[in-house]
């Protein structure tokens, strides 16, 4: 059972077995349909009757992913149950608009008995800050319940809830959008909580299918460089900064760099 | 094997067994998450351990569908293989933008040996028209192959292909968008070919799960009336025309209609 | 200048003069392009040289709006500045995904000196509730500033901010989506704050162009009936309930209603 | 007046004067709203009363464009009239789904007197191919008219129209999507016709506002490298290939490249 205010992510659908049997096939099917005179039914029959060597399937999938033929990976989706995230996170998360569906616990309709809370690490690591935070948190819960008792509707009483109050979501997202979201949210510059969420999402996908899990990386990995606006010296070293890469390239092109023996 | 130029639709994913086990549960999960203090993981555990009576699941699903809480039905999707439809149809079909993914046979990249064709019924039923149509169809195929032989690239040779040339698609669509598309395309005023496509789509869904199949109806069915711009006397009688319904309502409100014994 | 915590909406772009000169023309252009052998350039030249009588323009616009040919009204957009709305409202507002763009004041990046607040009317009308609310509001502001002083980053200190803290947004939305949003949010069942927002939006559009303003109505108005799930007797009377309308229609069809002399 | 079958693009809305007065301001407004405690109304008032130096506006715009804060450029849109493009092109063009609206000449509803055609350059430059192409083109036009005379409805007669038949569109697109589309379609590997379309679109935007026009470039320009799947030696030289850039970077990092004096 989920603990109060602890972030938890579960891959609800599909189960690993369904992913294993169908998901690579669906991408293969979508890609082959584009380039073949065969009907998709013929292509799929070959796939499900194991007439296509798995290496050939994987080779085509890797090709479409790397070459940016990303419509093909919109056909497979993952549904996650997410609990114990702050409303600060959820407000940010639901800004994603395409290839993704959300349902979220409603503060209008749920009358909370004891709402769970998210505590930022910078606060939990600072005893003085934590004391202030917990005092306010308890106070807001008390006021919330008093307002309900006075007959204020839940949809108005929740105006006193802080951003720290945890919320739950169901999120269904296709692979194309999931790669895009992970690319942004796994960046070391992303807000700490949403980054943690995508680490848990990656872990869940990795357990179900390591090939798909490995596609969930910060955007600098497929790009080859970091393109965030920051001082090159400060940045996180997952990949070199764009400016560094192209400074070297410019020197090379101008003949100012030579191979050493 | 698919016959040349015959429209075929297959529900590729998920198979009926997966739909039966999970799809109602996913909608139930999404809806309950909104209104419950429980985490989605708790709600899902109850569902998969059969602690929720199926009637209760269905009652909630019917409620969210009827009440327009349609975000909940964006979590389930269907992937169809479509073959033997004209490029006239596909140009129209891919205008749908939301909650739907397409991959389509490419006339740029496929060098056709013998492209299949779609013949409109008004033409196949008229021998004189059919003769003209078939002559032109064969002629365009001949010219296509001659252009290829002259070294014209396939992406330019296809400029001679008529709209009647058949194409294949993979379409993945969530239930919300599928209901919307069916609502438009099953209307008796829709173009005959795309209407036929959605009849086949409905048949496939119906076979996999009759509850979801029955949701695929012309939009007049949930609306209760036909709102197309046409003469009331001409229209198709699936539902009364909006104007008729409200003319009766106005008379009733003005006290001009009375119950007869 | 905007007052603290008072909701304000301004139509920023385009100004009334630009709307007057171009917006009807753009819808006319889009609709005529679909049905004419003329090029859109020819159609537009006729429009801007005043060769098309304004009545003909309006007749075509009214036709496409009523007949549901709504792609044509996606070509015109409105940009609003919105201030003094709660984060409860904004979290709901940004769930709209299509034909709409948002930028919002960031609680991660803005270090607030004195954040404005929104007070729900049910609270401001209840002195006891208001006292609790204001005490908590002031307390959370104090804690926020203390956390900042302790070196907690703004993005974490804001975890203590209640939903009542006001935020600002820029929203650009095309007419199709604006009509859809207004249809939902002007319903008397909508949350009071978002309903107030759309009343102000309608007022702004009305001032700039009454024709477009009048299109912003609760969804029951174009539907002809209320389709919300509620007891027929309780509902708001803008339009009759769907069930009432069709009960009368059924009686009429069965011959149980007759015209009285 | 548009010539038969000649591609023409016109920026219909807004006119250059409106762009000049408002479009930079709208991006500035959206970006500042995110980072300021001021209301957007205050920010806009400062802008329209010329209290913000144009250099400061431009600096912020350049920052958000380069740093990828692209929600801010979704607030400005451009409406183009497009004529004389093939249905091969339009079928591809309307696959863009987000931030873009289309209306297109309907082959269902328009009964063509003399449809214009697009001739691929590879065909027009080859007299033998051109003769075949023109013969088929004329033949399909003749058959189309004969089918109409036999009473076949226009929506079925058009099944004989080749992809080469020209069509007209109205396209409204926000700046974010326009940059994305231009990035793909101005690539030297894009299909020749759609590439020509985007050259004309860039020309129109450039005339109205060179700053926005200059943002419309092949995607390799902002990326810094070409990431298309092709042999490095074959590629177009607008930018170096990704593999080349990172081969040099790897050598450099391994200390195998040294600066020469």
Q: Assign an overall shape of chain A.
A: flat
Element-level helix/strand string of chain A? EHHHEHEHHHEHHHHHE
| Assembly annotation | homotetramer
- Indicate the structural class of chain A: alpha+beta
Level of helix content of chain A?
A: 40-55%
The main sheet of chain A orders its strands as 1-2-4-3
Gyration radius from CA atoms of chain A, angstroms: 24 Å
Give the chain pair forming the largest contact, with residue counts. Answer: A-B, 49 and 49 residues
Could you tell me the strand content of chain A as a percent range?
A: 5-15%
- The figure for the number of domains of chain A is 3
Tally of individual helices of chain A: 12
Main sheet makeup of chain A:
4 strands, antiparallel
The CA-CA distance between the termini of chain A, in Å, is: 62 Å
What does this structure look like?
Chain A is an alpha+beta fold and 261 residues long. Chain A folds into three domains: 8-81 and 168-219, no CATH class; 119-164; 224-261, no CATH class. Helices cover 50% and strands 13% of the residues of chain A. The first copy, chain A, has twelve helices and five strands. Chain A has a four-stranded antiparallel beta sheet with strand order 1-2-4-3. In chain A, helix 1 runs antiparallel to helix 2 (40-48) and helix 1 (16-35) packs across helix 3. The longest helix of chain A has 23 residues, at 127-149. The relative contact order of chain A is 0.14. The mean pLDDT of chain A is 95.
């Amino acid at each position: 059972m989920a603990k109060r205010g602890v972030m938890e992510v579960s891959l609800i659908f599909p189960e690993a077995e369904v992913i294993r049997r169908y998901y690579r096939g669906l991408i293969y099917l979508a890609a082959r349909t584009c380039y073949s005179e065969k009907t998709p039914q013929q292509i799929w029959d070959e796939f499900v009757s194991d007439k296509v060597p798995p290496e050939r399937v994987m080779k085509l999938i890797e090709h479409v992913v790397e070459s940016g033929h990303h419509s093909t990976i919109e056909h497979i989706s993952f549904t996650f149950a997410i609990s114990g995230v702050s409303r600060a996170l959820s407000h940010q998360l639901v800004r994603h608009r395409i290839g993704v569906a959300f349902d979220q616990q409603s503060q209008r309709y749920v009358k909370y008995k004891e709402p769970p809370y998210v505590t930022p690490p910078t606060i939990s690591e600072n005893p003085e800050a934590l004391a202030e935070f917990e005092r306010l948190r308890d106070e807001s819960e008390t006021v919330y319940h008093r307002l309900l008792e006075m007959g204020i509707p839940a949809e108005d009483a929740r105006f006193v809830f802080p951003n720290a109050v945890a919320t739950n979501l169901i999120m269904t997202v296709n692979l194309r959008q999931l790669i895009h979201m992970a690319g942004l949210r796994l960046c070391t510059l992303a807000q700490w909580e949403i980054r943690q969420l995508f680490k848990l999402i990656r872990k869940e996908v990795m357990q179900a299918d390591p090939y798909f899990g490995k596609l969930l990386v910060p955007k600098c990995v497929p790009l080859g460089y970091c393109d965030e606006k920051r001082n090159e010296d400060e940045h996180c070293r997952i990949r070199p900064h764009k400016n560094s890469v192209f400074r070297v390239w410019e020197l090379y092109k101008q003949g100012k760099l030579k191979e050493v023996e």
